[in-house]
Amino acid sequence: MGRCTAFPCTFRGETVKLKNVWVTYSGANLPAIQDITLTIPSKKLVLITGPNGAGKTTLLETCLGLLKAFKGEVFLFGINTKSRSVVNVRKLCGYVPQDFIKPPFESYTVKRVIQFGLAPYKSIFEQLTKEEEDLVQEVAEILDIKNLLAEPVGTLSGGQQQKVVIARALVRRPRALFLDEPFSSLDKESRKLVSNVLKGYVKEEKATALIVSHDTNPVINLADAVIEMKDGRIVETQGL
Amino acid sequence: MLELLALSFIAAVLSGGLCGAIGFHVHRLKITTLSFSVAHAALAGAAVGLILGLDPIYSAMGVAVISALILGFLLTRVKYGGELLSMTVFSVCSAIALFAIYLSNTQVLATSSISVILWGSLLAVTLQKLTILLLVTFTFILYILAYRVHIDSILYDKKLAEAEGLNIYNHTLAILFFAGMAIASTLKLTGGFLVFTLLYNPVAASFQLTKKAYLQLLYSSLLGSFSASSGLIASYFLDWPVGATIAILSSIILLLSFLMGELKKEEALKDILKKRNRINSV
Ligand SMILES: Nc1ncnc2c1ncn2[C@@H]1O[C@H](COP(=O)(O)OP(=O)(O)OP(=O)(O)O)[C@@H](O)[C@H]1O
Ligand SMILES: [Mg+2]
User: Fold this and answer.
1) Cα(B216)–Cα(B202) distance, rounded to whole angstroms?
2) Of A178, B76, B177, B195, which is least packed with CB atoms within 10 Å of its CB?
3) Ligand 1 atom, smallest distance to A181 CA
4) Residue B51: which of B106, B91, B94 has the closest Cα?
5) Cβ separation of A112 and B213 shorter than 8 Å?
6) In whole angstroms, what is the distance from residue B28 CA to residue A102 CA?
7) Taking 70 as the threshold, does the pLDDT of residue B208 lie above it?
8) What number is the average pLDDT over the span B255-281?
9) What pLDDT, on a 0 to 100 scale, did the predictor assign at position A51?
10) A112 at the B interface (CB within 8 A)?
């Protein structure tokens, strides 16, 4: 897989920078993350761990600007996530959400869903190029879901659906991957496969990966740095 | 008379198809309650327009589009409670519509026009309105063709699409804009109370008929077209109220699609059993 050429970016600094960030969900009394200051350097595979409710998902979504900090500032590739141009730097990112399961009647096919990852790079009336079509096939092959490409997503098992979102993130050839529990539904073999693919991708493409996983097993050996969270705070960092 | 009927027929084909296609998008975006309140805003707009001496369809269009855009804007700000917000707007709009209708009762001339926007009318379409409807339909088709992958991606998973750098707000607003236009232009045909049948029944039926997303969109607009136009013709010959005829017809279509869907499932099951028996006997 080649470097993402669809959306060039010349920014060379840190991938994500958070300064004293507090996030509270609407309707909640207590902040889900509190006073987080953190820098995620480029070209590193960083693992975020911690128990349920620690604030890992909140942190990841805040990095992408999907959640807004009520105090503090968040920079993604040097762009403040409150600014309108956050839409542009998101094009440099791949995202695997924690809740990816679709209901049985979901009718878009696996192939189409993986192609959706390329939608933001397309201008009006623009179709996928031959290389992009091939890339979709290639990524599906690597993740062992090529035989499912024509199936509606709703008919897939949980683990298969998880591979589809991972494929969708990878097909974007992003400079940064934001993965929320990407192994949660995978079997042992698949965990190994996916973690090797991710490690390989980060190394070859000089990309950054921010991986949330409460179970550190599949990735702990691959990570350059580990961040441990609890009760909305960072309690320990190693390797940063 | 026949000329007017022909105009109405073309309008029914277009607005039915438009409503069916928009219903698919609105349903997938999970903003059905929102379109419900937009429909009532259109009704209120039409009623107020009548009192002010404006053409009710144009005032309905204006109010529907403005309320769709405001609601869409608000919905993107409040991540939760959007349903409640829509239902509040729905109540307020219905209240305004009823107030306006009550007030207009004192003006004798207006009452027949009021009944048109409430219950629909066979012959309410003019050439000018048809032209507007044609333009809206054409722009909508152009829009969904131009941005097909973007829109599909948003319909599949709004949050993921946003995280990947799609401008989900602009597209949601665009779809709401078209929903407002479609609802307002269908208002005179079906009447304010029944306009949603054309937004919801065709898409519900299409989901019974196929599991493929692009076919669902196609079937939804075809069924919308068919319900509206055949309902119009039926109401002309049977001398039934047009809005109610369309609503009943599209509900029958929904019922038939449901039965067809069930039949299909049964046959698929039979096929599997047959195959299994064959394997067992070998
Ligand atoms: N939508 C929401 N509204 C209100 N509070 C929320 C919402 N989502 C999460 N929270 C709260 O924010 C805190 C952090 O949640 P978060 O989802 O970030 O945890 P997590 O570390 O990802 O947990 P898990 O391992 O279960 O995925 C929790 O206390 C949770 O109750
Ligand atoms: Mg989580």
Assistant:
1) 9
2) B76
3) 27
4) B106
5) yes
6) 13
7) yes
8) 85
9) 94
10) yes
148-187 in chain A: CB under 8 A from chain B: 152, 165, 168, 172, 178
- Least Cα separation, residue B163 to chain A (angstroms): 6
Let me know how long chain A is. 240
Residues B210, B216 contacting (CB under 8 angstroms): yes
Cβ atoms within 10 A of the Cβ of A28, count? 9
> What tokens were used for A10?
């010349």
Cross-strand bridge partners of residue A49: A228
Bridge partner list, B150: none
Structural domains of chain A sorted by starting position, each given as residue range(s) with its CATH number in brackets:
14-92+177-240 (3.40.50.300), 98-173 (no CATH)
Q: Which two tokens mark A234? A: 């960072």
- List the structure tokens of B62: 């204006």
Contact call for residues B209 and B219 (beta carbons, < 8 A)? yes
Residues B65, B180: Cα–Cα separation, whole Å: 5
Q: Is A117 on the interface with B (CB under 8 A)?
A: yes
pLDDT tens per residue across span B108-167: 455 667 777 777 777 778 888 899 999 999 999 999 999 999 999 999 999 999 999 999
B198-207: average pLDDT? 93
B93: distance to nearest CA of chain A, Å? 27
For chain B, the domain total comes to: 1
- Residue A218 corresponds to which tokens in the numbers above? 């599949």
Percent helix / strand / coil, chain A, rounded to 5: 30, 25, 45
Closest ligand 1 atom number to CA of residue A50:
21
d(CA A93, CA A64): 8
B117 in Cβ contact with B188 (< 8 Å): yes
Question: Please, which pLDDT band fits residue A46 given cuts at 50, 70 and 90?
Answer: very high
| Domain that includes residue B270, residue range | 2-281
* Residue pLDDT, tens place only, A68-100: 999 999 999 999 999 989 999 999 999 999 999
Interface check for A66 against chain B (CB to CB < 8 A): the answer is: yes
Nearby residues of A237 by Cβ (< 8 Å), 6 or more positions away = A225, A226, A227, A228
Confidence grade of residue A4 (pLDDT, cut at 50, 70, 90): very low
The complex scores an ipTM of: 0.93
> Is residue A112 a contact partner of residue A154, using CB atoms and an 8 Å limit?
no
Has residue A13 got a pLDDT over 70? yes
* CATH number for B203: 1.10.3470.10
- Lookup result for tokens 């997503």: A153
